[in-house]
Amino acid sequence: MSRSVLVLMILVAAVPLFFVPLGQDPAGPLAQLNIFGHFVFFALLAWSLARLHVLAGLSVYRQTALIFVAVLILGGSIELIQEYFGRTASWKDLGVNLTGALFGLLFLAPGRSRMPWVVLRGGQGIVLAICLFLFFNPVVTLWDMHQASRQFPMLGDFETRLETGRWTSGEIDREFARHGQASLKVPLETGRKYPGTTLRRSFGDWTGYTFLAFSVHNPDTEPLFLTLSIRDHEHNRRGGEYIDRFNKSFRIDQGWNDIRVPIQDIENAPAERTLELDSLSELIFFTTELDQPRIIHLDHVRLIP
Questions:
Q1: Cβ distance 202 to 283 under 8 Å?
Q2: How many helices (H) and strands (E) does the chain have?
Q3: Nearest-angstrom CA–CA distance, 216 and 170
Q4: Of 115, 118, 102, 121, nearest to 59 (Cα)?
Q5: Which of the residues 48, 160, 261, 282 could staple to 4 if both were Cys, CB 3.0 to 4.6 A apart?
Q6: If you average pLDDT over residues 145-150, what whole number do you get?
Q7: Among the listed residues 299, 291, 295, the one whose alpha carbon sits nearest the alpha carbon of residue 188
Q8: 198-257 pLDDT, tens digit each
Q9: Count of C-beta atoms within a 10 Å radius of residue 106
Q10: Whether 107 contacts 128, CB under 8 Å
């Protein structure tokens, strides 16, 4: 049995993996690694198809066109079927599939040697540029996830630019800091229903800690009422009802406000259960009913034993 046939059989056996749910966290590591799985699968698929006897004798351009169409049909079908298995169809995934196939044809397939040098090098350069575009954010995100796990139980100290990727809104500001050299400057705009920012990842397991602590800076003389909402994955599965999460509002006066929230209060907040401290999904700071735009600085978000 040739290597290409063996690889093709392995790839066919691996197809069901495309329909396995990626987990509860859409921003988690499995979601980031998914793009690499698509790329490698279709790169190997294109390589193995190009080596089959029935295609190996064709002209390189006809071979490339047929494999490209096959990948388009298979990749498109996988994306459409995924919706029935708890996953979402994605044009980006389809683009990754096609890019992986081109990589396999231009870098791995034996037929590439029959291409004119200019066409081959030009195609390889384009594919590498697309790969850089596709993989830059996942690689940076995975690196920051690693850094965040090392920093835990510090959830946000905002000493590096990458930390802004953990929050939905805000930018690093080195003019204000409660701890270290910087804080997160968060704009609170009137056009949004709940202006604020959300921690999307880097939670870890809060079990065994006593307090959630954070500092908020209000530059204005007028007080601001800021709400903290904490939710777990079970809350999201239950439909997101208000009584099934932690919510508490704080009066934020001018200057720095240092706040501690007992972890026990967070855990016991849902009406009919306890919040799962090892499976948190969101930590949200937000305001409501603003009559003018405001700004806050968030710093030193951490857990205290």
A1: no
A2: 8, 10
A3: 13
A4: 115
A5: 48
A6: 86
A7: 295
A8: 998 778 899 999 999 999 999 999 999 999 999 998 998 888 899 999 999 999 999 999
A9: 24
A10: no
- Please give the Cα distance from 24 to 255 (Å, whole number): 38
Alpha carbons within 13 A on the beta-carbon side of 139: 6
- Asked whether 252 and 199 are in contact (CB, 8 A), the reply is no
pTM, entire model: 0.77
Domains of the chain: 3-150 (no CATH), 154-304 (2.60.120.260)
Neighbours of 78 (CB within 10 A): 19
Which residues, other chains included, contact 73 with Cβ-Cβ below 8 Å and sequence gap of 6+?
A: none
> Omega into 153 within 30° of 0, i.e. cis?
yes
Residue 27 pLDDT grade (very low, low, confident, very high; cuts 50, 70, 90): low
| Greatest alpha-carbon span in the chain | 78
Give phi and psi for 256, each to the nearest 5. -85, 135
Which position has the token pair 């439909």?
239
Q: What is the DSSP letter of 108?
A: I
